[in-house]
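re: that chain from earlier
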Amino acid sequence: MRPHRVDNSPDREALHWLIAMQEAPDDVALRDRFRVWVQASPAHAEAWRDLNRVDDLIGRALSSAKPAMPPHRVRQPVVVTVFALAACLLLAFLPLVQARWQADYRTATGAMRQISLADGSRVMLAPDSAVSVSLGADQRRVVLLQGEAFFDVQRDPARPFTVFAGDSSIRVLGTAFNVRRLQSGAEVAVAQGVVQVSRADTHVDLRPGDSIDTSQGQYGIRSTLPTELVAPWRQGQLVVKDRTIADVVDTLRRYHEGVIMLHGSALAERRITGIFTPDDPEAALTALVAPLGGSVIRVTPWFVLVTG
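^ sequence. v structure.
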């Protein structure tokens, strides 16, 4: 067997390798593929070292805790499950903590927030999102640290307004647009005016109704949508157009108080179009994957497993 990859985060890949090897400890071919993965990138090796530090901490906690049953009755699968859940929680929440240290404004899980900036611009933060803001004499800068935000920018030719999301930037004078930060790049959709999206040496101008996903290839994937469908999350809707299950699940994580783990690369890579209500993440997940043969398992109130 092989680990099921959900996204390109080394931390998540490390966790999936861990689970796969726990499920098949005698699979020599699996361990050979794991060694190739670790050696392929310094980021992979670092993610695996971090996960092993978690293993050590949990091992100490388990050894110091008083057992609830005689040692001979403690089953290995229970320990594996506890470790996997704890590691999953740590990997899920560490980036959140780091982003919030840097944030000037942020939102909690399932909550939205309207922000009025000193220059007259307004920012609507989606759930579980964070930004830092810097308004200078000759430029205005906002960094989308995580999540998603809708910007209604006050025009000021002397001070361009630039939003940074990962390795992508969005530069405007005055307009309205939505930015969603992705693992690699950003998704940008324009409601009014014109924006320039840049990544590396590539620059693309977008007009009302235009959207682009800069994580897809050198120039990204560009599409057109009705302007009323720009940032539908502001009206409590999740409108999905030809997105992968993994991508949609990642959005629903912002509405769930806990961890959602997607297991199964075949399911994760399926593409879907539809309209969902994110206020009830478990119901939305079921509506999302059930037609494709997937299932949603509530392991605990704070841990949901999506598999298929």
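The chain has three domains: 10-102, 105-231, 236-307.
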